[in-house]
Amino acid sequence: MLVQKFPNSLKSLLIKGCLLVEHFLGIICNTQPTCLQSLDISDCACSLSIPGHHLPKSLKELRIQNCRNLEFAATQCMWLESLEIHDSCDFLTFFPLNTFPNLKHLVIKGCLHLETLMPPLQLEDSTLDSVTISCCPNFVNFPRFAAPNLTSFRLIQCPMMSLPSDMNILLPKLEFLSIWDGPTLDMDLVISLPPNLQTLYIMNDKYLLRHLSLMGMHEGITFLSIGSISMSVSSFPKVGLLPHFPSLATLVLYGFEYMEALDCDGLLHLTSLIALQIGNCPKLKSVKGERLPSSLLKLEIYATPFLEELCNEKHPHIWSKISHIPSIRVNERWVS
């Protein structure tokens, strides 16, 4: 026997499977529970529609997962603050941000036909704080995507995507940017990083790697991670490749499949660098140049077997270039 009414104090609800999703959605829309704040819907293959304007005003968080045939009629979801759509809503081709005036957190993953985000009508009133778009093969662009309060932006495995132009103007408060698997970039865009950006991840993107130097000087970036690069580069980074980030404190080099040598000279202009992490570089076995930057306080090496062995043995060709660093950690073991 399925319940026909929720307790008045119910704040969170997880619904799983076609029968339960259809039944409990009907109850929610009809009874409008006043305390329900979080709703999680999953594993429903039925063709159903969620009328956004019939959801209770108390609802702040909505998560939809593995519901390919679910149609989300997002008409005036005035109160929703967090929305996550995972491998669901295949009918969705554009996402209307203007129907979510109080939305702060948005995640869209595996939405097969999604092409674009439609910007809110009143850009200056946008409350968006974080956006993640992931594994959406037909996602193309963000037309004039202005989010004055956005601080975190993740773009993952969307091969057709073009990044929004003029990010420095459209996303003035952005602090965290992660780009995975090669969106399309205009040359002008590469040098238009948001002024408050602090953390930048570039993963599996050959184009961005080749044009890193065009980003120019950026005073705010303190963390840079570059990884999963499959291009044939035997020595990295070449002098002049990395941009001038005067505040950069941490640099992570990860997943360089073909890199054989770390070039010290390509890092010497990073005068604030205090931490260097090197991981999953299976062919890396030498360090070129005089030595790593004198500002370094910590060096971490993991899943890089050739270089690990040379460091543990304190091989003179390697040790003379890293021994000035106070803390050296090789595969979870401190070397002194």
Structure description:
- The chain has 336 residues and is an alpha/beta fold.
- The protein has three domains: 12-76, no CATH class; 92-197; 215-336.
- It is 12% helix and 28% strand.
- It is built from six helices and 22 strands.
- It has helices spanning 18-31, 167-170, 187-190, 206-210, 305-312, 316-322, and strands at 12-16, 38-42, 48-51, 61-65, 70-73, 82-86, 94-96, 105-109, 116-118, 130-134, 152-156, 176-180, 199-203, 223-227, 235-236, 250-254, 261-263, 275-279, 286-288, 298-302, 327-330, 333-335.
- The protein has a 15-stranded mixed β-sheet with strand order 1-2-4-6-8-10-11-12-13-14-16-18-20-21-22. A three-stranded parallel β-sheet has the order 15-17-19. The chain has a two-stranded parallel sheet with strand order 3-5.
- Helix 2 (167-170) links the parallel strand 11 (152-156) and strand 12 (176-180).
- The longest helix has 14 residues, at 18-31.
- The relative contact order is 0.06.
- The model has no long low-confidence stretch (mean pLDDT 86).
